[in-house]
Amino acid sequence: MWQVGVDAVVIPNGLSAEAFQFPDTAHVARLRELCRNRTLLAKVARWDPDKRWLLAVRIVRELKTRGLRPLLVARGGAEAHAGEVFDEASAAGLRVVHRGAPAPGVAGIASALEGGHNADIINLLSPLDPAAKRCLFRAADVVLANSGREPFGLVGLETMAVGGLACTGCTGEDYAVSGQNAIVQQTNDPREFVDLFKQVHEDAREEQALRERGAETAREYAWPVVLRRNLLPRVARGPQQEVARVA
Q: Which among 187, 134, 146 is positioned nearest to 48, based on CA atoms?
């Protein structure tokens, strides 16, 4: 834009008021009870290599190797990369169960999780409505939002908004600070994630602090705050100079 004489205003993505609606505590407890004694991971993203699904599979394998009994609840799209992900899981000796939700909302997730004790990965075939997604993000021990390239990921912020623990990648999500409000993975090595996660998960006070600071961070990215901080001052000043017109 500068090349044609136009100053661009860059603003972060933001969260709607709905994103801050905490899920029912009974629903969260239900999901946690169904995954009792398991390390519950969640990942919701397109089946795209940039979303690092293959790394997610390797993380599950590493957690299982260390005796942490992982269960990854995955919800992707209709992209072909899903086949590569499931091939990777099979090669790693992981059991993948594909399940549709017989009912909408949280009840559907609960039904999909029932009887999944021997699964390492449960692939949800049914869409997640916003309320069900918020409940899953809150109930999970960690939400994998660890994209390899991300302009500005919302999943991490959505997780923080409901008091969840997010693991992001190190590109784009400037709001995530490792050890302060999230886990930030900088490499493609599953051992890095497991070491960071164990450090947090084995200290209940530290984990709670991360979740609370994450929720505080998310509130700074509510749309009214984003607009007030980034756009209103410029509107109040009015046009400062004439800019070039682009045909």
A: 146
CB 57 within 8 A of CB 89: yes
**Torsion angle of the four alpha carbons 205, 141, 189, 192, in this order, in degrees rounded to the nearest 10:** 10
Torsion 189-162-217-10 (CA) sign: positive
In which residue are the tokens 């290599």 written?
Answer: 49
* pLDDT 10s digits, 88-105: 999 999 999 999 877 778
Model-level pTM greater than 0.85?
Answer: yes
Measured in whole angstroms, the distance separating CA 204 from the mean position of its chain's CA atoms is 21
CATH dotted code for 17-227: 3.40.50.2000
Report the alpha-carbon angle 33-90-43, nearest 5.
45
* pLDDT single digits (tens) 124-145: 999 999 999 999 999 999 999 9
Q: In whole angstroms, give the CA distance from residue 106 to residue 104.
A: 7
